[in-house]
Task: structure prediction
Amino acid sequence: MKLYMPKVIPSNKKYYTKNKYNDKIRTGMLPALEIIPERRRKLGLTQSKLADLAGVSQSYIAKLEAGKIEPSYLKVKAILESLDRLERREEVQAVEIMTEDPITVQQTVTVQETAEIMRRNGFSQLPVFDGDKPVGGISERTLIDQILYQEDSKFASQKQVKEIMEENWPMVTKDAPLSLLSNLLKYYPAVLVQKKGTVIGIITKADLLGVFSG
Result:
């Protein structure tokens, strides 16, 4: 009697069986799978993070990159779309999302006047200038601290902004990438955009959220 012996595929050998996804590759509708780990690493993503973004498991990403799983067209499509979205965001530069000609306050303006400017314009923070030079920043948090921790709030409201302002915010050029802006905004309420030493724009967390929700 002739025994049927199934073909064993070595676990360390990459293989991609004929399926709907590979048909798409051959017709040029989708790229080859080998580019996924390269694109992932270039974006600084772990397999786990990419899996979360694409809605698949981390083990699926690992097996897919190792060539040890038959690729699902829908899952691979979701992975590639996640990479596409992130790459588009990486290309965004400061000049594309900044608010031009930001409203500023001079360092000699009173806290009360500054609070009114912020309220009237709906801002959570403002850059503080000495003439045409940025010297600090003022935020809602700093103003609230003045109200909470000063015994005489009326006296506090008449202080000059320079007495309570925060340290100067970082400045970048207009071609600064989104990745740099994201990191800076983890630690500062805003980033100033400059051209040849002159401030031409401001970027806040709200501007950054606009990119990710767009």
Summary: The first strand starts at residue 99 and ends at 100. Residues 190 and 204 are 4 Å apart (CA to CA). Strands lie at 99-100, 105-106, 125-130, 133-139, 171-173, 190-195, 198-204. The chain is about 45% helix and 15% strand.
